[in-house]
Amino acid sequence: MSQITETLLDDIRSRFAQVDHCPQQGQRVFFENAGGALTLNSVVDTSKAYAAIPDNQGRDNAGSHELVRVINKAKDDMRVFMNAPGGQFFVGESGTELLFRVIMNACLGTAADGIVLGSTVEHPATRSACHRWARISGKTHLLVAHDDSRGLVTAQDYAAQVTPDTRVATILHTSPVTGMGMDVPAISAAIRAVSPDCIIIIDGIQHAAHGQIDIASYDVDGYVISPYKMFSRHGYGLAWISDRMTAMEHDSLVGGP
To answer: How many domains does the chain have?
Structure first.
Protein backbone atom coordinates (compact mmCIF):
# COMPACT_ATOMS: atom_id res chain seq x y z
CA MET A 1 0.00 0.00 0.00
CA SER A 2 1.39 3.41 -0.97
CA GLN A 3 2.01 5.94 1.78
CA ILE A 4 2.17 9.72 1.80
CA THR A 5 5.72 10.56 2.79
CA GLU A 6 6.81 13.94 4.12
CA THR A 7 8.46 14.67 0.78
CA LEU A 8 5.32 13.79 -1.17
CA LEU A 9 3.14 15.84 1.18
CA ASP A 10 5.42 18.87 0.73
CA ASP A 11 5.19 18.41 -3.04
CA ILE A 12 1.39 18.26 -2.90
CA ARG A 13 1.13 21.31 -0.64
CA SER A 14 3.44 23.29 -2.91
CA ARG A 15 0.89 23.00 -5.73
CA PHE A 16 -1.75 25.04 -3.86
CA ALA A 17 -2.14 28.71 -2.95
CA GLN A 18 -2.52 29.94 0.64
CA VAL A 19 -2.23 26.47 2.18
CA ASP A 20 -1.17 27.66 5.62
CA HIS A 21 -1.31 31.46 5.38
CA CYS A 22 -4.18 33.91 4.83
CA PRO A 23 -3.44 37.49 3.67
CA GLN A 24 -5.91 38.79 6.27
CA GLN A 25 -5.59 36.30 9.11
CA GLY A 26 -1.96 35.35 8.87
CA GLN A 27 -0.79 31.81 9.61
CA ARG A 28 -3.67 29.35 9.89
CA VAL A 29 -4.89 25.88 8.97
CA PHE A 30 -7.50 25.91 6.20
CA PHE A 31 -10.23 23.43 7.12
CA GLU A 32 -13.51 23.64 5.21
CA ASN A 33 -15.93 20.77 4.75
CA ALA A 34 -18.37 22.35 2.30
CA GLY A 35 -18.08 26.10 1.76
CA GLY A 36 -14.63 26.48 0.27
CA ALA A 37 -11.61 24.70 -1.16
CA LEU A 38 -7.95 25.29 -1.85
CA THR A 39 -6.97 26.62 -5.28
CA LEU A 40 -4.19 25.19 -7.42
CA ASN A 41 -1.36 27.61 -8.22
CA SER A 42 -1.73 26.59 -11.86
CA VAL A 43 -5.35 27.80 -11.76
CA VAL A 44 -4.23 31.16 -10.36
CA ASP A 45 -1.65 31.51 -13.15
CA THR A 46 -4.07 30.45 -15.88
CA SER A 47 -6.81 32.77 -14.62
CA LYS A 48 -4.37 35.69 -14.61
CA ALA A 49 -3.24 34.95 -18.15
CA TYR A 50 -6.76 34.77 -19.57
CA ALA A 51 -7.94 37.83 -17.62
CA ALA A 52 -5.41 39.92 -19.57
CA ILE A 53 -6.68 38.92 -23.04
CA PRO A 54 -8.59 41.76 -24.79
CA ASP A 55 -10.14 39.57 -27.50
CA ASN A 56 -13.57 37.97 -27.34
CA GLN A 57 -14.42 34.57 -28.78
CA GLY A 58 -16.28 34.56 -32.08
CA ARG A 59 -14.33 37.38 -33.73
CA ASP A 60 -12.17 36.95 -36.83
CA ASN A 61 -8.66 37.40 -35.48
CA ALA A 62 -5.89 35.14 -34.24
CA GLY A 63 -6.51 35.80 -30.54
CA SER A 64 -10.22 35.06 -30.88
CA HIS A 65 -9.56 31.91 -32.88
CA GLU A 66 -7.27 30.64 -30.13
CA LEU A 67 -9.93 31.32 -27.49
CA VAL A 68 -12.47 29.31 -29.48
CA ARG A 69 -9.97 26.46 -29.81
CA VAL A 70 -9.36 26.43 -26.04
CA ILE A 71 -13.10 26.54 -25.29
CA ASN A 72 -13.83 23.64 -27.64
CA LYS A 73 -10.93 21.63 -26.20
CA ALA A 74 -12.22 22.29 -22.67
CA LYS A 75 -15.68 21.06 -23.65
CA ASP A 76 -14.18 17.93 -25.20
CA ASP A 77 -12.17 17.33 -22.03
CA MET A 78 -15.32 17.71 -19.91
CA ARG A 79 -17.09 15.11 -22.06
CA VAL A 80 -14.35 12.64 -21.19
CA PHE A 81 -14.09 13.68 -17.54
CA MET A 82 -17.85 13.38 -16.94
CA ASN A 83 -18.53 10.67 -19.59
CA ALA A 84 -21.07 12.78 -21.46
CA PRO A 85 -20.90 11.98 -25.19
CA GLY A 86 -24.16 13.83 -25.93
CA GLY A 87 -25.72 17.08 -24.81
CA GLN A 88 -23.72 20.22 -24.16
CA PHE A 89 -21.72 22.03 -21.49
CA PHE A 90 -21.94 25.69 -20.55
CA VAL A 91 -20.82 27.91 -17.71
CA GLY A 92 -22.55 30.39 -15.43
CA GLU A 93 -21.99 32.61 -12.42
CA SER A 94 -22.00 29.69 -9.95
CA GLY A 95 -23.33 26.19 -9.45
CA THR A 96 -26.33 27.61 -7.59
CA GLU A 97 -27.08 30.09 -10.38
CA LEU A 98 -26.92 27.30 -12.96
CA LEU A 99 -29.26 25.08 -10.94
CA PHE A 100 -31.75 27.95 -10.84
CA ARG A 101 -31.40 28.48 -14.59
CA VAL A 102 -31.70 24.81 -15.54
CA ILE A 103 -34.63 24.21 -13.17
CA MET A 104 -36.36 27.35 -14.46
CA ASN A 105 -36.15 26.15 -18.06
CA ALA A 106 -37.29 22.65 -17.08
CA CYS A 107 -40.35 23.99 -15.26
CA LEU A 108 -41.27 26.49 -17.98
CA GLY A 109 -40.56 24.01 -20.78
CA THR A 110 -42.93 21.30 -19.54
CA ALA A 111 -46.71 21.14 -19.21
CA ALA A 112 -48.24 23.80 -16.97
CA ASP A 113 -49.45 21.36 -14.35
CA GLY A 114 -48.23 18.33 -12.43
CA ILE A 115 -45.43 17.81 -9.95
CA VAL A 116 -41.88 19.01 -9.35
CA LEU A 117 -40.35 16.32 -7.15
CA GLY A 118 -37.29 16.68 -4.91
CA SER A 119 -36.17 15.52 -1.48
CA THR A 120 -35.54 16.94 1.98
CA VAL A 121 -31.85 16.02 1.86
CA GLU A 122 -31.20 18.48 -0.95
CA HIS A 123 -29.19 21.69 -0.76
CA PRO A 124 -31.22 24.94 -0.67
CA ALA A 125 -30.09 25.64 -4.25
CA THR A 126 -32.37 23.02 -5.82
CA ARG A 127 -35.10 23.28 -3.20
CA SER A 128 -35.32 27.05 -3.52
CA ALA A 129 -35.28 26.97 -7.32
CA CYS A 130 -38.00 24.31 -7.42
CA HIS A 131 -40.10 26.17 -4.85
CA ARG A 132 -40.01 29.32 -6.97
CA TRP A 133 -40.37 27.92 -10.47
CA ALA A 134 -42.93 25.23 -9.64
CA ARG A 135 -45.21 27.97 -8.39
CA ILE A 136 -44.61 30.22 -11.39
CA SER A 137 -45.14 27.38 -13.89
CA GLY A 138 -48.38 26.13 -12.30
CA LYS A 139 -46.92 23.02 -10.71
CA THR A 140 -46.80 21.62 -7.16
CA HIS A 141 -43.45 21.15 -5.45
CA LEU A 142 -43.28 17.96 -3.38
CA LEU A 143 -40.41 16.68 -1.25
CA VAL A 144 -39.50 13.05 -0.60
CA ALA A 145 -38.48 12.63 3.05
CA HIS A 146 -34.93 11.39 3.57
CA ASP A 147 -33.83 8.84 6.17
CA ASP A 148 -32.34 10.81 9.08
CA SER A 149 -30.51 7.80 10.48
CA ARG A 150 -28.71 7.17 7.17
CA GLY A 151 -28.43 10.74 5.92
CA LEU A 152 -29.73 9.93 2.46
CA VAL A 153 -32.76 9.26 0.28
CA THR A 154 -33.26 6.05 -1.74
CA ALA A 155 -34.82 4.97 -5.01
CA GLN A 156 -37.57 3.28 -3.00
CA ASP A 157 -38.32 6.59 -1.29
CA TYR A 158 -38.72 8.31 -4.66
CA ALA A 159 -40.73 5.42 -6.10
CA ALA A 160 -43.28 5.79 -3.32
CA GLN A 161 -44.06 9.37 -4.38
CA VAL A 162 -43.40 9.69 -8.10
CA THR A 163 -46.55 9.93 -10.24
CA PRO A 164 -47.18 9.93 -14.01
CA ASP A 165 -47.58 13.73 -13.92
CA THR A 166 -44.15 14.31 -12.38
CA ARG A 167 -42.75 16.82 -14.88
CA VAL A 168 -39.44 17.72 -13.22
CA ALA A 169 -37.38 15.89 -10.60
CA THR A 170 -34.20 16.85 -8.76
CA ILE A 171 -31.65 14.55 -7.12
CA LEU A 172 -28.76 15.48 -4.83
CA HIS A 173 -25.78 13.31 -5.74
CA THR A 174 -23.82 13.77 -2.50
CA SER A 175 -24.84 15.74 0.58
CA PRO A 176 -22.44 18.39 1.92
CA VAL A 177 -24.13 18.01 5.32
CA THR A 178 -24.35 14.25 5.86
CA GLY A 179 -21.52 13.26 3.51
CA MET A 180 -23.67 10.50 2.03
CA GLY A 181 -24.09 9.77 -1.68
CA MET A 182 -27.37 8.95 -3.41
CA ASP A 183 -27.77 6.13 -5.93
CA VAL A 184 -28.52 8.39 -8.88
CA PRO A 185 -28.98 5.65 -11.55
CA ALA A 186 -31.44 3.77 -9.30
CA ILE A 187 -33.41 6.91 -8.41
CA SER A 188 -33.51 7.99 -12.05
CA ALA A 189 -34.77 4.55 -13.09
CA ALA A 190 -37.47 4.65 -10.41
CA ILE A 191 -38.66 8.02 -11.70
CA ARG A 192 -38.62 6.98 -15.38
CA ALA A 193 -40.53 3.78 -14.61
CA VAL A 194 -43.54 5.92 -13.72
CA SER A 195 -42.89 9.18 -15.59
CA PRO A 196 -40.63 8.38 -18.55
CA ASP A 197 -40.58 11.92 -19.95
CA CYS A 198 -39.70 13.61 -16.66
CA ILE A 199 -36.87 16.14 -16.80
CA ILE A 200 -34.32 14.95 -14.20
CA ILE A 201 -31.71 17.37 -12.88
CA ILE A 202 -28.77 16.44 -10.64
CA ASP A 203 -26.98 18.64 -8.12
CA GLY A 204 -23.47 17.22 -8.36
CA ILE A 205 -21.72 20.15 -6.70
CA GLN A 206 -20.47 18.31 -3.63
CA HIS A 207 -20.14 14.94 -5.36
CA ALA A 208 -17.66 16.24 -7.94
CA ALA A 209 -15.02 16.69 -5.24
CA HIS A 210 -15.24 13.12 -4.00
CA GLY A 211 -16.62 10.68 -6.57
CA GLN A 212 -16.64 9.65 -10.21
CA ILE A 213 -19.16 11.29 -12.55
CA ASP A 214 -20.66 9.03 -15.24
CA ILE A 215 -23.44 11.00 -16.92
CA ALA A 216 -24.00 8.47 -19.70
CA SER A 217 -25.12 5.89 -17.12
CA TYR A 218 -27.57 8.13 -15.26
CA ASP A 219 -30.34 8.73 -17.87
CA VAL A 220 -30.81 12.33 -16.71
CA ASP A 221 -31.20 15.73 -18.36
CA GLY A 222 -29.05 18.07 -16.29
CA TYR A 223 -25.94 17.89 -14.10
CA VAL A 224 -24.34 20.87 -12.34
CA ILE A 225 -21.00 21.24 -10.54
CA SER A 226 -18.97 24.05 -8.94
CA PRO A 227 -15.37 23.69 -10.16
CA TYR A 228 -13.89 25.46 -7.12
CA LYS A 229 -14.64 22.31 -5.12
CA MET A 230 -12.27 20.48 -7.48
CA PHE A 231 -9.33 22.85 -6.83
CA SER A 232 -10.32 25.32 -9.55
CA ARG A 233 -11.48 28.81 -8.52
CA HIS A 234 -14.55 30.60 -7.23
CA GLY A 235 -16.72 32.70 -9.54
CA TYR A 236 -18.19 30.24 -12.03
CA GLY A 237 -20.19 27.04 -12.33
CA LEU A 238 -20.40 24.32 -14.96
CA ALA A 239 -23.56 22.66 -16.26
CA TRP A 240 -24.33 19.82 -18.64
CA ILE A 241 -27.75 19.40 -20.27
CA SER A 242 -29.15 16.65 -22.48
CA ASP A 243 -30.03 17.09 -26.15
CA ARG A 244 -33.75 17.23 -25.40
CA MET A 245 -33.23 19.88 -22.75
CA THR A 246 -31.01 21.81 -25.16
CA ALA A 247 -33.99 21.90 -27.54
CA MET A 248 -36.23 23.55 -24.92
CA GLU A 249 -36.91 27.26 -25.20
CA HIS A 250 -34.42 29.27 -23.17
CA ASP A 251 -32.93 32.74 -22.79
CA SER A 252 -31.00 33.51 -25.98
CA LEU A 253 -30.36 36.21 -28.54
CA VAL A 254 -32.86 36.33 -31.41
CA GLY A 255 -31.42 34.06 -34.08
CA GLY A 256 -28.76 32.79 -31.68
CA PRO A 257 -28.19 29.27 -30.29
So the answer is: 1
